[in-house]
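Below sits the subject:
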Amino acid sequence: MAHLAIAGGEPIRRTPFPRWPFWNKEEVEAVQAVVESGRWGAQQGGEVRHFEAEFAAYQEAVHGIAVTNGTVALKLALTAAGVGLGDEVIMPGYTFVATATAALEIGAVPVFADIDPHTYTLDPASAEACITSRTRALLPVHLGGRPADMEAIMALAQRHNLVVIEDAAQAWGASWQGRMAGTLGHVAGFSFQSSKNITAGEGGMILSNDAAIGEMARSLSNCGRQPDGLWYAHYVLGGNYRLSELHGAILRVQLRRYPEQLARRQANAAYLEQALSEVPGITTLRQDARVTSNAYHVLFLQYHAEAFGGAARERFLAAMHAEGIDGMHLGYSLPVYRQPVLRAKNFGLATPPLFSGAYPQMPDYSRVAWPATDRACDAEALWVRQNMLLGERQDMDDIVAAIVKIQSHCDELQE
């Protein structure tokens, strides 16, 4: 008789985890008010302006500039910080592709360093080994809502006179040594895309405590205008990257609700991490007292096949889905340096300067390989999605029970 659901047994659960995105009548009423006002653009209304101030205050930043998405936030943050044509930007390879394409779109060159295998964030020692005379910036990623080692990264930047752009796309409410993400480097980019813990379907935010960077980022996002200039006077090569009032209205509601959701995610993550510490073959990332708040967009697990009869991670994941734990997934299946667009240098017309002599020779990304990054993508990392962490204690117990069940009957994983 089969025990595992994947082999025909009864699943651990049939109840879905909390839906995402979460909304209620507050979002509906906020959008309705904007529609009925007739002021749908940020230049005419006040929702985006208020959201900029509220989100910046929440993250304890001075300047907040709302933009169309997180990729644009990173692109404009890089430009506002002085990164440009032919400059090398060091970043981890275990991240979403936009971390790299934001640099490519402004003519900068992504250089990939390895991640710390115990935190999945940029390894400062690996980053330092990548520095050359062309390096202009470090771009650490606060992956899954866990801040990178900003103490080491900022010290590295100071030694080599580099700017630091935080990819905080997943780090709303995260903090390092009591300081909020987005205020640790020189400038940061956040995302409000549909999977994110605060979402309006799309949207992004640039944060900075540097007045010059903040003012430049705002000008770049608003067609190159300046606050004290004529409306039809354009002072820098900017674009229209403004967020709409409809997005701003939704995001204001989402932000008001967020502290309670953050606390719930953190409590459930702590419970899961403790429970899983007693399960052979599944490890969680190393705790670090300097991470004073983890946003838990993702709770990362590390899978060790030998504890499951040698079954591949993909087979284990299929078994978890069969048991009703359908919110768990593999995450990034390719390091960015193995993405087809980078291997083929298929950049189209977006970055022609890279092919006009401004940079001597583009890196051959097919030659890049980092052990911790490759292992996370190929065999090790499992993601518990943020909406699962909004569940009840029984939901967390079901996750643990499914893992224990699969391990106990791992012989049934054989195909």
Summary: The mean pLDDT is 95. The longest helix spans residues 245-276.
